[in-house]
């Protein structure tokens, strides 16, 4: 009884072996290195483009016209200006 059971376990062990990859190719490491290099090149390109775009000046929009419905208060503040307080002493 022990001999047939050992034979079944020995034959089934190769079938029960766990596969961690979807393919059994040997060049998977080369493929991983290739995509790692492509990723680093893409990071470098994106960084250079971001620096270029951020270094350019941006447009300034003109001031909006003074619409009467905005109720902007142009009165002076009721407290003393901080610049006059500093120059008094």
Automatic annotation (TrEMBL):
Subcellular location: Mitochondrion inner membrane
GO CC terms in record: mitochondrial inner membrane
InterPro entries, per database record: Cyt_c_oxidase_su6a (IPR001349), Cyt_c_oxidase_su6a_sf (IPR036418)
TM ranges: none
Keywords (A to Z) from UniProt: Membrane, Mitochondrion, Mitochondrion inner membrane, Transit peptide
Keyword rRNA-binding: no
Lipoprotein found in the keyword field: no
Superkingdom of the organism of origin: Eukaryota
Protein name stated in the entry: Uncharacterized protein
Organism name: Urochloa decumbens
């Amino acid at each position: 009884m022990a001999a047939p059971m050992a034979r079944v376990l020995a034959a089934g062990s190769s079938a029960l072996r766990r596969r961690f990859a979807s393919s059994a190719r040997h060049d998977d490491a080369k493929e991983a290195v290739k995509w790692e290099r492509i990723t680093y090149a893409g990071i470098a390109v994106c960084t250079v483009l971001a620096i270029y775009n951020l270094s350019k000046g941006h447009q300034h929009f003109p001031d909006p016209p003074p619409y009467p419905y905005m109720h902007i208060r142009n009165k002076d503040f009721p407290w003393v200006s901080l610049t006059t307080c500093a120059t008094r002493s």
